[in-house]
Amino acid sequence: MSTSYFLYTEAHIDNKWVCINPGFDMDGKRRLAMTYESGSRSYFGQTADMIEEIGGRLRFEDLSAELQGRYESCRNDEFVRILSAEVDAMRGCLPSRQAHEYHGIVLKDAVFAYESGDAEDLYESITPEEYAKLDEVGKQLYQYYEWDDPMGWFVHFKEILEHVQWQIHDWQSVYGDEAINKCRVVVLVF
Asked: What is the pLDDT of residues 7-26, one digit of tens each?
């Protein structure tokens, strides 16, 4: 069974949570664009677990008025989980000086297979000490490389946080420098 994850960004403005996702009215209903969406349990489950671990669960009543209005039909649905984490807490999980989750000295052929989609991940790397012991011909087979686990939480956090930054920028472009004290990512899990 597939699980769907719908992510939104809420900002704390004037002592209340406000959904800052762009939206439009259609057929008498407010439609909100999502910050991020995933329909894959295997790929996004770890990310949702991490968001819950650093943040927690929310009650329906704790959502912004915009999200309550959008998901009113889910108010009493016991199968819908609502997760939330503050954006600063999510940023804190990503090392500031590390652009990627993994790095190492790997075979050039393995990098080519990974980048072309023939390999799902890079499983083996050697240490700098092992590399130093190789002869010149052996060294030509390897390269330094940085990558993210495409199914792990790290790559999703980076993408979600990038989308959140765009939404904050867009919100402030439209509404001015209205004081956003803090932001959170809300995940509705169906």
From this structure: 999 999 989 999 999 988 88
